[in-house]
Amino acid sequence: MKSLSLMLCLIAICAGIATAQSSMTLPAGLLTTGGGAGSGFPFNATTDHRWQWHYANSNFAAAGVTGPITITDISVRFLSPTFAGAGFDFPSVDVYIGSATTAYGVATHSSVFAENTCGDLTLMRSGPWVSGAVGPAPVGNATADWMSFGSTGSFTYDPGLGRDIIVEIAKCGTNITWGTSIDGSSAAAGLNGGNRYGNTVDCSAATSTFANNEFVPVVKIDYIAGGTPGLCISNTQSNQTESSLTVNGGASAALSNGVAATVDMNSSNAGAPWDVGLVPGASSIGLSAGGIATPAGQTVNLDLTNPSFLWLNNNFSAGGGFPAGGISLPYASANYSVSGQMAVISATYSDGVALSQACDLSWVGCSGSNFDNLPAGGSPPGWTNPSTPWVALASVAWSVDSSGTPSGGTGPTSAASGANYMYCETSGTGGTAEFNMATCPFSTPANTLSFSLSRIGATIGTLNIYVAFNGNWNATPIATYTGADPGQLQGGTEWSSESITVSAMPLGTADIAFSFSYTGGGGFTGDIAIDDVAVN
Asked: How far is C-alpha 407 from the chain's CA centre?
């Protein structure tokens, strides 16, 4: 009898260990350390909001989590441990969590919310989120206390599958705000492990209109080890070790005529037959727009019914042998576009092939821009976020905006013309981030750059404009603007018209490009903006 009792006791203990709750943060390592960067969005704003907080898969390995886990709750906290909140009241806060089908960077996360998640997106809580007084934290604590969303659902996630993870928030209605900022994390590009993408006026929006490069709220997830993740059929297929296709290092490239593109193909299936399906003159399509979900859970993102569809490698006629260093495609004259997706023969999938991401490539004549009709995180065709010798590799991309930057007292309230402009969001970057954006190369003669410029804010930094001849950047700026424009005021004169003539153009110059490189002045009121860029 004693043996039976002992056995039952051991079973109970083991079961308790197997289901013991653990916690970690996204980004990782911040359970007892503050993120150090704050934002009033979404819980200190009165407007409706919808957000995707997108966290890198690498956070889980950093926290020592490598196998499947079942997430049972999600929490957030105030930026300051000393803040004493009187309470908050939000009539409806829906919180979802799910696997990501895109990577967290601004170059890959789609402005269409649905394109970043798959079929495993799970509602964790819904309805009012209300609390009485919260804080301050006990004296000596380095962070504010965690505030649970009160999850009623659960979500199983396997970091071993390599997908990022997304927390999606829909805040509809506000009676009482937090009265303070949410704790967040910010770092140099590629190092923060998360970004946020949102709509700050519509809780049911289908697309984001606001993005932060390398700023994201800190969340705590409570979880138990184990569980079986659901099948994630992506709107768009991702690269994998067995099948990887990139164009200029990413999923898309819009280049000016005369600029070469590099296509790289890779597979861990050495020697396996492979091919790339191509559709000239057409873009790739998502699952929701006619793509095909395969039985094994992959996604075909090409229109196979298009009469122009063709195989690059003659319908899997040969295996292996990917060109070293990629294929250079120097379309130089006429406008052209093509979409492609690679398939490698594989025993891993019941489909018989492993699919890569679909890539889109286009060549267009270089032109100026007033930035209208661009998505969040977008830029005009052929424009880039470059790393030049005198600009740090961790430069931050400029952002599209239309009706006032998120920070008060800085930036324009509307475009100089049309709907959109490009600006530098200094909140969450420490205020001194370096933003860089280059035009595509214009064919010469093109020696005068004109644009509209807005410099409103107490901590406006320095904008340097550089020039490149035949792709070679000149390290000396051709123009410099420092500090706020004393003649500008929000609601009054918000823009100035600028014109710069390039006089020292080397003989033999075939093309010319310009770079807008801005360094913030040290605070969140340093949002600078440009519009109506033209080159003659």
From this structure: 20
DSSP state string for 482-502: ES--TT--TTS---EEEEEE-
Q: What rounded mean pLDDT belongs to the chain? A: 86
Answer yes or no: pTM beyond 0.70: no
Element (H, E) at 12: helix 2-18
CB 366 within 8 A of CB 514: no
Tokens of 156: 């199983």
Q: Which domains does the chain show, CATH number per domain?
A: 20-225 (no CATH), 244-364 (2.60.40), 399-535 (2.60.120.200)
Looking only at the bridges linking them, the beta strands covering 252-256 and 353-364 are: parallel
Overall average pLDDT of the 327-335 stretch: 54
Q: Rounded to whole angstroms, how far apart are CA atoms 6 and 420?
A: 71
Q: Which residue has the tokens 């009241």?
A: 89
**CA-CA distance, 477 to 316, in Å (whole number)?**
51
Assess contact for 366 and 441: CB atoms under 8 A.
yes
The end-to-end CA distance of the chain, in Å, is 94
Cα dihedral: 463, 459, 532, 108 (round 10): 80
As given in the structure block, the two tokens for residue 189 are 């590009």
Identify which has the larger pLDDT, 106 or 74.
74
Contact 390, 475 (CB under 8 A): yes
Would you give the DSSP letter of residue 85? Answer: B
Cα distance between residue 505 and residue 29, in whole Å: 51
- Nearest by Cα to 425 from 39, 53, 6, 34: 39
| Count of all residues that appear for the chain in the document | 536
Instruction: With beta carbons less than 8 A apart as the criterion, state whether 453 and 509 touch.
Output: no
Is the link from the previous residue into 217 a cis peptide, with omega within 30 of 0? no
- Please write the tens of the pLDDT for every residue from 423-474: 988 886 777 778 888 887 787 676 789 999 999 999 999 999 999 888 888 8
- Spatial contact of 518 and 431, defined as CB atoms under 8 Å apart: no
Among candidate residues 512, 494, 492, 515, the one with its CA nearest the CA of residue 503 = 512
Cis? peptide before 307, omega within 30° of 0: no
